[in-house]
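>> received
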Amino acid sequence: MLIDTHCHLDAEQFDADREAVLARARRNGVESIVIPAIGASNFDRVAALCAHDAGCAYALGIHPMYVDHARPGDLDLLRARIERDRDDPGLVAVGEIGLDHFVPGLDRARQEYFLVEQLKIAREFELPVLLHVRRSQDALLKQLRRFRPPGGIAHAFNASPQQARAFLELGFALGFGGAMTFTRALRIRRLASELPPEAHVLETDAPDIAPSWIAPGRNTPGELAAIAEVFASLRGLTPDEAARQTGLNACRALPRLARRIDRARGAVVEEPGPSS
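>> returned
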């Protein structure tokens, strides 16, 4: 069960051939794709993509790299949108949210404010979160321990083994994608090979973080199968075993995604009711 847990399929880089990109991903065995929003301006777009394709699911959130451009009412809009659409089976998480301490010039205090408020929303609606974690692991862990959202995925993970274990202890899975395919990415490849089986999920972050064989070109969800083969080789697994384990991990980290996949397969499942 190949699941791309992080793919910006709504990005303008796919406007010319989005259907063909999706078709190639399906031919390559990708069963489900999670599309995170980056701000209020694309809430409608990610939801609409998933409304027309049961193989896709979405998350709503405000990305830390874009909080400087967010409007004062965007957090209220996010909360209202999640409250309105809480029974939409395509809505599986709050995201992409987090902290970015790598890009110069970003307002860290504003990032933290938006992170905290979105963690509160995730906890209120019992939704997991999709985390952007770039040179900000300890600061993020501090807020996760304070607000305790119901787990989720730390996307594009790259940190120490100790930090990885801290995220795992808080109920998070860790996202691995194109960066893992570079032989020089020693720390990421070590995390991929040495962490316990329940730690990993797979992702592309398309159109970004292209794997080694197409870098620096446009990444697509169709590359996930080959990314999974690299992951399998690092763990001493077959590609099918790697797909199965990471797929199960994704469904555990994003419980509503498991229901979404069952619906896409034509299964009759109980829909999630309103949160208490």
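>> The domain at 2-264 is CATH 3.20.20.140 (TIM Barrel).
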